[in-house]
Amino acid sequence: CEDCGKSLLGECKLHGPLIRAKDRVIPSRARLTLPHYLTLRVLELRAGNQQILGVFAKKVIQKRTQFGPYVGQLSTKLTRYDESRLVLQVLKDGGKYFLDTPNEDCGNWMMFVRLARNQEEQTLVAYQHCGEVYFTTVKPIEPHTELKVWYAADYAKFMEASAVFIKEESDVCPLSPVAKEPVDPWICSSCRSTFATFALLESHQCIHKDRV
Fold first, then answer.
1. What is the DSSP string of 154-197?
2. Model-level pTM?
3. What is the pLDDT of residues 134-176, one digit of tens each?
4. Which residues constitute the signal peptide according to the record (predicted)?
């Protein structure tokens, strides 16, 4: 204690405890690599405070947008398995290795992307290129939509898994429109006009800038 000049095993009974200042919590490497137009959402909280996370779009993401490469540690066996995530392997120097992500400091944001369980919810395909794994969008992704991935056809063969094929988009409008879940409108901060998608809001803001 600097006030009474004594070296104590515990708190000073005369002057009391020290005021403890904690370090600022730094996000993990994986969370820091998340692109600005994507966000993480907690989908479920399991025992032991374990969070089940999903990656969601904040703006429209165009078809054929490539993400990657996937960052992980090459391993002959998996140290971390999650049934909601894809198991990934790569071919390196003639050997087949797992892309393992034992914790968030060993990978990038792509480790949070959950697997697609059917054709309708799949928005990404995973494939191998030059010893790396990439994800590419197979259709436009609307705001508030979760990014979900499955293997591309050739990569599915490499992984000895079944392939999920995405239907090509048709130019013919359906006779009976399918009802979508309502989403919060995007509001212009200048004139308070509302828009159904972020893309429409962006184009509207461009008009304001042109006028200025």
1. HHHHHTT----PPPPPPSSPPSSPPP----PPEE-TTT--EESS
2. 0.68
3. 999 999 999 999 999 999 999 999 988 877 655 544 443 333 3
4. none
